[in-house]
Amino acid sequence: MDEVKVVVAHSERVTLRVGDVFLKVDGDPARLDAEAEAMAAAPVPTAPILWRQPSVIAFGALPGRALGRLGEPSPASPAAWAAAGAAVRTLHDAPLPKRPGRRADSLVRAELESECELLVAKGLLPADLVARNRAVAEAAFRPFTPVFAHGDLQLSHVFTDGDRVTGVLDWSEAGHGDPMFDLATLTLGHEERLADLLAGYGPAADLAAIRAWWSLRSLLNVRWLAEHGFDPFAPGCEVDVLRSRMHSPAS
């Protein structure tokens, strides 16, 4: 009998694995509609959709294995990372989808300012660590040309077999977006693999913006993760990402 494994669970959505089938349950059915639409439009391999109900979607498992997990060394080869970079570039070069997506704008800036104040006031992070990463994060607030962005391109969402990308999971945040956000999300906590990724992605990567998104994403996520049963203080995770900026270039 196949066991039911909880892949991720929080108040907005739950993803379960039963054998070779993944079930995603979302409190907002519109997100599942948007995810299915993005998967259909994406010019890269995705998981097969087996069936859908209003608040549930079932996916088939992907061959190969994920590039890795946050907080753990990536088992993937440089060639696999380069293949992932090439796949991301193919996505970014595709026609824009209908759905608007994530971007760094005045609303995100206001959210960041508020979150930085809370992180210090609640004693979650020291003021100097927050201030340094807030300064680094400023480079994300820049003009850019929107692309077809995945929007949540964690390395556990990209599967490879050898040097071939077999599929990309979790398209619920896909839409118009900053290409550097995708690259930063994929290498969060794995800065040492950025060169391998960019070998496949090609030119036009903005390193300052990638570093900025590492800081910005981590600052915005630390408190939420801590309050929802995750551990951003675990080795290699968000707080370590913030600490790594203390003695590195701001741009």
UniProtKB/TrEMBL annotation:
SUPFAM superfamilies: Protein kinase-like (PK-like). Residues 36-213 form the Aminoglycoside phosphotransferase domain. InterPro entries: AGP_Transferase, Aminoglycoside_PTrfase, Kinase-like_dom_sf. Gene3D superfamilies: 3.90.1200.10. Pfam families: APH. This is Phosphotransferase. It comes from Paractinoplanes globisporus.
